[in-house]
Amino acid sequence: MLQGVGRGVSDDVALSVRGLKTHFLLGKGWAGRRDKVRAVDGVDFDLRRGEVLGLVGESGSGKTTLGRSVVRLVEPTEGSIQLDGVDFRQLKGRRLRQARRRLQIIFQDPYASLSPRMQIGQIVAEPLRLHRLIQPGQARERVIELLDRVGIEPYFIHRYPHEMSGGQRQRIAIARSLGLQPELIVADEPVSALDVSVQAQILSIFLDLKRRDGISMLFISHDVGVVERIADRIAVMYRGLVMEEAKTDTLIREPLHPYTQALLSAVPSARPGEKRKRIHLTGEPPPATEELRGCPFASRCPIVEEICRTVTPPLEAKEPGHRVACHLVASK
Fold first, then answer.
1. Which of 27, 97, 152, 305 has a CA positioned 20 to 30 A from the CA of residue 322?
2. CB 185 within 8 A of CB 209
3. CA dihedral sign of residues 75, 242, 107, 214
4. Mean pLDDT of 282-297
5. What is the pLDDT of residues 197-207, one digit of tens each?
């Protein structure tokens, strides 16, 4: 459940993120000045145990950087990442290695994330060996068990990634992450490179992980239709910030932020006969190298007012369980 800054972390919260910023320094420019890309510029959220939080937004909104920052593949610039009340950012050495077992990430391109020099059985067994979770003679049995969970036959253990289809490679990536029995999975665009029919099969695996294993997930995608099928809640990102957050059915049925409304207007309706009025946005988002002044969506917003250009709106509850970062959306 997403909550505001300053609230206590309850026992059912698996992950708590506060004030997370991830900036990337660029080379020196004119007069020796060093610019920085503000990929994630102050994000707060809580993720409950067994919950799937969908993270959507257009390319460049900071979704992937946020996901990688949470598992510390990219080191955040500021903020805290708490696992059961322990700040994950402060862990080092052995304690960090132990904590990493609880957090796993599944990448968008399974071919790039699987070693082409290793057989499938070796790929799935590698994290088990690194964390010393199996004896040498137990590897084959455990690997076959994990592959069965994702619908891969045992005889594939001797094949290489280039001999597998895209959907099969993504199943392998999921099986590898399950070996460490994680409590939380960051899924970064895990079905965007797959055919629609294969997407449905992979989403079924994620739904099984949620229902059967109770694994919490941060599910990242630019496709709202995909996220709608799996997420309990959805957070909409734009230019490194969360613009709106609510339960999935609430956000799809009644989006309040102008950016969310435009985003959803581009998604074909699954209901026969229903037509959505397309909202065409003009203008450009503010450069990610500039410090934010006002609302990041002001340059493209169809209802912008002067306050939007000068004061950054806080992400606050406009309705129970529905937070929006917009000056022009009234609270109820």
1. 305
2. yes
3. positive
4. 89
5. 899 999 999 99
E strands, the chain, in order: 13-28, 34-48, 52-56, 78-83, 86-87, 103-106, 184-188, 216-220, 233-238, 241-247, 316-319, 322-324
Q: Residue 110's closest CA among 187, 209, 219, 18?
A: 187
What is the DSSP secondary-structure string of 94-137? HHHHHHHTTEEEE-S-HHHHS-TTS-HHHHHHHHHHHTT-S-GG
Residue type, 113: S
Strand-pair category, 216-220 with 184-188: parallel
CB 284 within 8 Å of CB 300: yes
pLDDT tens digits for range 214-263: 999 999 999 998 999 999 999 999 999 999 999 999 999 999 999 999 99
Q: What token pair was written down for 214?
A: 């109770």
Sign of CA dihedral 177, 178, 180, 184: positive
| Order of strands across the sheet that contains 52-56 | 103-106, 184-188, 216-220, 52-56, 233-238, 241-247, 322-324, 316-319
Start-end of H helices in 165-195: 166-178
Structural tokens at position 304 = 């912008």
- 157, two tokens: 């253990």
Instruction: Please write the tens of the pLDDT for every residue from 98-154.
Output: 898 999 999 998 888 899 999 999 999 999 998 888 887 889 999 999 999 999 999
